[in-house]
Amino acid sequence: MKKTMALCSTLSSFADPSAAPRDIFWWNSAIMACFRNGDVEKAHKMFDEMPHRNLVSWNCMVTGYVQNRRILDAQRVFDSMPKRNVVSWTALMTGYLRVGRVEDARNLFERIPERNVVCWNSLISGYVNNGRIGDARKLFDEMPKRNSSSWSSMISAYIREKHLDEAVRLFNQSPFRSTSLYNALLSSYVELGCIKEAEDLFSKMETRDAISFNSMLTCYSRAGKMELAKQLFDEMPVKDVVSWTAIVRGYLQNGNVAQAFALFDEMPIRDLMSWNTMMSGFIQNGMLDEACNLFDEMPERDIVSWNTILQGYISKNDILSARRWFESMPKRSETSWNALISGCQSEDALALFCEMVRAGFKPNQGTFVAVLSVCASLVSIVCGIMVHVRVLRTGYEHDTCVMCSLITMYSQCGLVDDSVRVFDRMLKRDTIAWNAMISAYAYHGLATEVLRLYESMIQSGFHPDHVTFLNLLLACSHKGLIDEGCRCFQSMQEEWGIVPKAEHYSCVVDLLGRSGFIEQAYRFTQKVPEKLQKNAWETLLSACRVHGNLELGELTARRVLGGENSDGGLYVQLSNIYAAKGKWGEASNVRALMEEHGLKKEIGCSWIEVKGKVLSFVSNDHKHRDHQVDQMCRELDQISFMPE
DNA sequence: TGAAGGTGCC
After folding, report:
1. A101 is a domain residue
2. Which end of chain A is less packed: N or C, by CB atoms within 10 Å?
3. Cβ of A272 < 7 Å from strand B?
4. What does DSSP assign to residue A607?
């Protein structure tokens, strides 16, 4: 608040130089204002021009350069300072920490003549931001005196790392327990879906503000407990726009669009956020037309409103309309580009990425995640590496999300060693990062590595989730590690309390079926909760085909064929089982039945990257004449007949 | 009096 007022008076005296005397305060504030606007050169010029400088003026220069990531300039100013105080040291140290020069920061810290609580806090948060929570904790324990900032940075660091046990332990020891810290802990429980813990904490709070209530609203909404959410909402002493929006969002996420819209209508105050929430709720529920109507009715629109409709077209997979909408937008943001890039899973996405950069937009986390996922699905390593270079150049090399996308991209392009290199260099790892690496190994069938990495994940104190176990099961299944796989499936439920999804059941069926234990797989599938059986039966059918088990194949086919979602592939599998047994009549009957249902099997397609171009081909494909298809076939023949 | 360094939620 103070800063804002100072800035306002500074700006108004810029407009009218006679309004305020140009004393040293004026100069110092003006310099900071320039730095805050990113106008580094102007700040520098003013510093040169000012008639008198004091220690604060010099500190402003160090801070300003640090804020604009110009560390060398900050260092130069620091070195030429006539006098320094602890603020000067702290400012430069923060600069080092911001660009990841943690050891330099530590050395500087050791040299500070008179340390105060702020410079201790700066180094602690610097360690935290560089993923070195252990070092942060050591420093925290060594501190001669701690203030509320010290406690809150340490506790929120544990919260952000999802080390909630440690966060709570410290929180209980802390002499400062502000509502905002309570709220941080509360929202973290909410994010992790720990309803019981959130409820307990909420009931213990001495004072609750709108944020506390709103977090609890979100908590109940996410858990699908809309009655409890509505009850809390009705009890709230003061409802703000966020509360109204939270309850509307809750109904939307739980598919109750009518109730959401009714409440939206009742809202006493609607700002843009509520309109945008309602609109994106329509889109989440597949109601693009309704969203468009709302868009037309809105009193004013911002870039989020435009992006929401764009996202609507993309989630309908209508890339053409998305593209047209994108062209018609009065303004675009990085989010608009990201949405469009993630929408087209083809080479067009890579062209768009280049176009975005040329148009002067800075790729951000979402951009890299989207474009790397396209590189991965196109198995385009040349583009993948180009994007990786840009990641490094734009300072995203320590972004956990982007690193996960790189791990996946390298793995899907066949370079699992590069995935490992990225994973090893990560400063901060979360469950998703461990999952990405485990999945990279699983994708390459490296079951031993998968199990080893899982062990170290647990030892590092991370909680596995349903994705972790899916990968463990996949890896075990591919390597025929039946005992390990079954143990995983058991531990998932008993040790970690994770309820298996349809994919997990299918994996177990695959695990048993692949190794020829068809009857066990059949008995297992019968015990799968009925709603989740469909995929398991399909997996079983495929195992019956591989092992030529006609009897169980027929039994299984009866469970899946003719159902709502049965596709051509299933008929083909059954037909192949008959064909393998020489039962040509039955085989062609099944094919006929399939045609009767108007089904076709989609043609399988493969692709390869040659000199940076992705070429796709199907079986018996002769369209790549210009790529010397005859020579390729001769080469393949030679390889196939080579003695082993 | 005011300008410089650290922390914080839906």
Report:
1. no
2. C
3. no
4. E
CB of A13 nearer than 7 A to strand B = no
CA of A583 to C1' of B10 (A): 64
Q: Residues A479-532: pLDDT tens digits?
A: 999 999 999 999 999 998 888 999 999 999 999 999 999 999 999 999 999 888
Cβ atoms of A140 and A154 within 8 Å: the answer is: yes
Nearest CA among A522, A519, A512, A595 for reference residue A575: A595
Please state which of the ranges A36-50, A122-136, A595-609 shows the lowest mean pLDDT. A595-609
* Cα end-to-end distance, chain A, whole Å: 77
Q: Three-class SS string for A361-374? A: CCCCHHHHHHHHHH
- Dist CA A461 CA A350 (whole Å): 38
Domain with A612 in it? 604-644
**Measured distance CA(A152)–CA(A630) in Å, rounded:** 69
Nucleotides of B under 7 A from a protein CB: 2-10
In window 230-269 of A, residues with CB < 7 A from nucleic chain B are 242-243, 246
The number of folded domains in chain A is 1
Find which nucleotide's C1' atom is closest to A118's CA. Answer: B6
Q: Measure the CA–CA gap between A366 and A122, rounded to whole angstroms.
A: 29
Mean pLDDT in residue range A86-104: 94
Contact A334, A362 (CB under 8 A): yes
Question: What DSSP element (H or E) covers A614?
Answer: strand A613-617
DSSP reduced 3-state for A354: helix
Torsion of CA A32, A33, A36, A41, to 10 degrees: -80
Summarised one tens digit per residue, pLDDT across range A526-561 is 999 988 888 899 898 888 888 888 888 888 888 777
| Residue A644 within a domain | yes
A62-80 burial: b if 16+ Cβ within 10 Å, else e: bbbbbbbebbebbbebbee
pTM of the shown model: 0.68
Does A263 fall in a domain?
no
Q: Coil, strand or helix: which one is A349? A: helix
Report if residue A403 sits inside a domain: no
Q: What is the DSSP string of A258-304?
A: HHHHHHHHH-S---HHHHHHHHHHHHHTT-HHHHHHHHHH-SS--HH
pLDDT in tens, A109-162: 999 998 999 999 999 999 998 889 999 999 999 999 999 899 999 999 998 887
